[in-house]
Amino acid sequence: MTLDTVLSHIDADLPKATDRLLTLLRIPSISTDPAYKADCDTAADWLVRDLQSLGVEASKRETPGHPMVVGHADGPGPHVMFYGHYDVQPVDPLELWNNPPFEPALEDTPKGRVIRGRGSSDDKGQLMTFVEACRAWKAVHGALPVRVSLFFEGEEESGSPSLIPFLKENTAELSADIALICDTSLFGENTPAIMTTLRGMLQEEVTITGPSKDLHSGLYGGAAMNPIRVLSRVLAALHDDQGHITIPGFYDGVPVLDPEVARQWDALNFDHTAFLGAVGLAEPAGETDRTVLEQLWSRPTCEVNGIWGGYTGDGFKTVLPSEAHAKISFRLVGQQDPFAIRESFRNMVQDMLPADCTVTFDGHGASPASQMSTDHPAFEKARKALSDEWPNPAAYIGCGGSIPIAGYFKDYLDMDAMLIGFAKDDDQIHSPNEKYDLESFHKGIRSWARILAELAT
Amino acid sequence: MTLDTVLSHIDADLPKATDRLLTLLRIPSISTDPAYKADCDTAADWLVRDLQSLGVEASKRETPGHPMVVGHADGPGPHVMFYGHYDVQPVDPLELWNNPPFEPALEDTPKGRVIRGRGSSDDKGQLMTFVEACRAWKAVHGALPVRVSLFFEGEEESGSPSLIPFLKENTAELSADIALICDTSLFGENTPAIMTTLRGMLQEEVTITGPSKDLHSGLYGGAAMNPIRVLSRVLAALHDDQGHITIPGFYDGVPVLDPEVARQWDALNFDHTAFLGAVGLAEPAGETDRTVLEQLWSRPTCEVNGIWGGYTGDGFKTVLPSEAHAKISFRLVGQQDPFAIRESFRNMVQDMLPADCTVTFDGHGASPASQMSTDHPAFEKARKALSDEWPNPAAYIGCGGSIPIAGYFKDYLDMDAMLIGFAKDDDQIHSPNEKYDLESFHKGIRSWARILAELAT
Fold first, then answer.
1. Correct CATH for B201-254+300-367 of 3.40.50.2300, 3.30.1370.100, 3.30.70.360, 1.10.260.40
2. Domain B3-198+369-455's class?
C-alpha cells in the first residue's frame, strides 16, 4: 500500500472534506450552556454516521452529561486510539463576530484561505483532520495501515465531568498501544510540533457577600463594607510585584526546568515581542525572573476569567451591592496538586475577609499537569512523518494550555499520548471570529496519513 | 383659615390620596435607561394634570433629556418653592422583588401598613406628600396659606444633566424666598429632621484595556497582562488599611467637625450596631478613627458601585479578557472639589497601569457637598411645625446621601433650601422591594400642611 496515492486522494478530495467540516461546524454544540444540550447530541449523531460511512464500527454512548462517540476499525500492526472533542466554547461577545459563529464559511485573507466559525480550529477542524486521513486510506486501499480506535468527547470545554467514569467503565475497549490527540498548535507557520508538557487546571468561582441586601451608597457608604472592595483586595493580593503567585504552598511541586529542555527552547528563537505585539501588548506579565516561553510552558499561572458585581448596565446606579463574584483559574505544572492548591486558595481568601463578610466557593475543573515520556517508538516515527510533510523538522515543545485527557489516558488506560495539532496562534480559539487555516486542515490530513503509514513500519 | 380642618380633611382623604400615589407609581419612569424615555414623559404629563386639577397653573417643560414640571399657585405671605423628582432607580436584580416593581400595592407588615413598589419612597411618595397637603388646603379653604411654586425633575437618578441649564434659563420664574425639598429621611421612627449637611457626589466609569482582544488563558496566561488583575490592583489601592481613601489630595477641603455639632450627634445616641446589624454587618467599614455617624454624615467615601469583565455566564470559560470595567462613586463633604478629585483619581489610575495597558474614563455626575445655613427664619418655623406633628421634637441632622439640588438652588437661584423628608432607613430605596410607610405618607402630608401654616405666620 503506497502513501503517495493516499496523499493524492487527499489533495483531490479537499473540497468535499471541507464541506463535511462546514456541516459539522453548523451544529452549535456549546457544552457549557444547557441551552445547547440537544445540539451536542446532534453533533455526536453526525459523527457516528460519518464514521459509519467510512466503514468504522461507531456508536454514541450516553453519559450523565453529553454523549461520547466511540469507533473501531481493524488493521494490521499497532493499535492507536485517536481522541478529539466535538463541543465548542460559548460565542460571547457575539457583537464582535463579523459573521454568525455557526454559519461557517471559507474566507480569503491576506495570509491565505481560512475556514471561519466557532469550533473551526478548536476542535472540530482538528478532529476531522484525522477522520479525513482515515477516509483517504479507506478510499484508496480499502483498509487502514494500522488498527484504529476513535474516541470523541462532548464535554472538553466544560470540565469533562463524565470522562473519568467513562474511562473507568470502558478501560478494555479504549486501551491501545498509544493515544493520538489533535487539540494543539503548530510551533510556527512551517514548524510542526509534538507537545510533551501540558499545564493542568484548577477552576474556582468565588462569591463574597457583605451586606444582606443591596444598599444605597449614600445612606450606607463609608460605614457598610462593600464586597467589591473585599474581592478587589483578594484578587490584587494573588500576585506580588514580581508576578509570583502568593497562595501559600502554590509552588510546591513546580519542577526546576531541565537545562537540556531550556537549551532546546532557547534554540527555537521564540520571538516574544512579536507574540505579545500581535495582541497589542509589549510587557511580559508573568514572573519577572522567567522568559516568556517559560511563563507559557513551564510555569503555573493564576488568571481571573470573569468578574461581576453591583450595577453593570447603562448609566449609573449608586448601589452598594450585597455580593461580588469572580471566576478564577490556575494553570498548573509538574507535580502541583490541584486539590491542595484549592484548599490553600480557599483558606487564603477566607483569611482576608472582614469578620462580617462571607465567601462561598464553587469548584469547577481540577486536573494536574502532564509530562509525556518520549520513550515510546511512536514518538520518533510521528516526528519523522511530520518532518516529511512540513518545511521545517518537527519539534518537541511545551504548551501553556490544559488538556488533562493526556494525563487521564496515562492514569486510567496506562497509555502514552502524542499531542499533535495544526492550529495557529492567530486562530482566535475561545474568541470571536475563530478560524482554521485551510492549509492547517489540508496539511493536517496529510500529516495524519503519513503518521499512520509510519506507525505501520 | 384654621389648620385643624385641613388636618381632618387630610385624614379623611387618605384612601384617595393613596390611590393617586399608586397611579403614579405604576408608571416605570426609570430615567437612566433610554428604554423608559416615554414612561418618564408619561409621569410628567400625569403630574401636570394632577396639579392642574387642584388649581395650580402647571406645565411640562421639554429639555434635551427628560421633561421638567413647573407649577405656580398664588397665595399671601412668603413665596416657597417645592422640589421633588418623579424619576426612579432601575429595578434590577428583578428576581429579588416579591411583586413586580411597577405593580404597587398596600401591604400589611409587622411594623404597619406600607406602600410597596419602586419609587414609593424615592421620590414619588415623598413628592406627593406636598402635593396632597396643597390639595387639602385648597379643598378646605379654596386657597393656599402662602404663595407656592412646584418644580419636579425627571433626571435626579441619572445625574441631572438638564438641571443647571434649566435653572439658568428660568431663574426669575423658579426663585422664591426659600426652597422646600422632600427627598430625605426621618432621623428615627418618631423623630422628624431637617437636613443641613449633604454629601456631594463624583461618579466615574473606568475601562481598562489590556490585550487587543479576548485571549485563551492557556495560550497566553502568564505572559499577557489581564486587565481584571490591573483593575483589582487599582480598586484595592483606593483604601488603606485604616479605611482612608488614598487618592492624592482627596481630603483637601474636608472640614474638621464642629465640636458643637459633634456634641449634638453624640446626644442622638445613634445605635450603629443596630444600624449595621439590620443589613447583616457588624464592623464599621470606614475610617477607623471616626464614629459611624461621622463616617455617614461628615466624611467622604469611595465606593465601587459596579464591576464587570470577562465571562460572567454559567459554567466556566478560560478567557483572558481584553477589557475590565468599574463604576466608582465618591461622596464628598465640605469644600472638596469634585473636579480636582476627578483629575487626581484619573492620574492615580493612569500611574498604576502597566505601560501596555490603557484606560478610558467616562465621567458621570460631579457635584460638591452642601452645608445649609439655618439663619433663615423658615428653619425654626418648620422645626416647630414638625415638632407639633411628631412624638419627638425635630432635629437638625447630617445626611450621607447626595442631593446636589440644594447647592444648585443656592448657587443659581440664591435661595436657601430646607430638606425635610419622611422616609425610613428600612425603605429599601435603590433596592428590591422598596416601600414607603403609610404613616410616612400620612404624617408627611400633615407635616407639610402644618409647615405651610407656620410659614404664613
1. 3.30.70.360
2. alpha beta
CB pair distance less than 8 Å for A303 and B226: yes
Report the alpha-carbon distance of residue A383 to residue A7 in Å, rounded: 18
DSSP strands (E only) in B340-438? 358-367, 370-371, 395-399, 417-420, 435-437
- CB–CB of B236 and A217 under 8 A? no
Listed by start position, the domains of chain A span: 3-198+369-455, 200-254+300-367
Question: Distance between CA atoms of A321 and A212, rounded to whole angstroms?
Answer: 9
Q: Is the Cβ of A312 closer than 8 Å to some Cβ of chain B?
A: yes
Q: Angle at which helices B227-236 and A227-236 pack, to 10 degrees?
A: 120
Q: Are A430 and A89 in contact (CB under 8 A)?
A: yes
Measure B343 CA to nearest chain A CA, in Å. 19
Of the listed ranges A7-11, A51-55, A260-264, B226-230, the one predicted with least confidence:
A260-264
> What's the distance, CA B204 to chain centroid?
18
CB of A215 within 8 Å of a chain B CB? The answer is yes
Eight-state DSSP code of residue A397: E
Best B98, B219, B291, B435 residue to mutate vs chain A (most A CBs within 10 Å): B219
Question: Are the beta carbons of A295 and B232 separated by less than 8 Å?
Answer: no
Alpha-carbon distance of B230 to A242, in angstroms, equals 14
Which chain B residues are Cβ-neighbours of A280 within 8 angstroms?
210-213, 356
Query: What is the rounded distance in angstroms from the CA atom of residue B203 to the CA atom of residue A123?
Result: 44
Best CATH choice for the domain A200-254+300-367 from the list 1.20.1250.20, 3.30.70.360, 3.90.480.10, 3.40.50.300: 3.30.70.360
Residue A362 · residue A159 · CB < 8 Å: no
- B430 contact residues in A (CB cutoff 8 A): 214-216, 317-319
Residue B115: C-alpha distances to residues A180, B3, B42, B93, B121 (Å): 67, 27, 21, 20, 8
- B302 three-state secondary structure: strand
Does the beta carbon of B336 lie under 8 angstroms from any beta carbon of chain A? no
State residue A9 phi and psi, 5-degree precision.
-60, -40
User: B236, A237: Cβ pair inside 8 Å?
Assistant: yes
Question: What would the grid cell of residue B243 be?
Answer: 479605611
B residues 218-247 lying closer than 8 A (beta carbon) to A:
218-226, 228-229, 231-233, 235-239
- Look at the alpha carbons of A284, A286, A287, A291 in this order and tell me if their dihedral is positive or negative: negative
**Strand-pair category, A147-153 with A68-73:** antiparallel
ipTM > 0.90 (yes/no): no
State whether A213 and B279 contact (CB < 8 Å).
yes
**CB interface of B with A, residues 175-194, below 8 Å:** 185
Residue B364 region, left (φ>0) first, then alpha (ψ -120 to 50), else beta? Answer: beta
pTM metric for this prediction: 0.72
Per-residue cell: A382: 510521528
Contacting residues of B for A225, CB less than 8 Å apart: 281, 283, 285
Cα-Cα end-to-end distance for chain A: 12
User: In this predicted model, what pLDDT tens digit does every residue of A230-289 receive, in sequence order?
Assistant: 999 999 999 999 999 999 999 999 999 888 778 878 888 899 999 999 999 999 999 999
Cα atoms in the 13 Å half-sphere on the side-chain side of A209: 9
Residue numbers in B near A428 (CB within 8 A): 213
Taking the C-alpha atoms of A237, A239, A244 and A247 in order, what is their torsion angle to the nearest 10 degrees? 50
Contact A217 B280 (CB under 8 A): no
Residue B431 with chain A: CB contacts under 8 Å? 213-216, 319
**pLDDT confidence tier of residue A1, bands split at 50, 70 and 90:** low
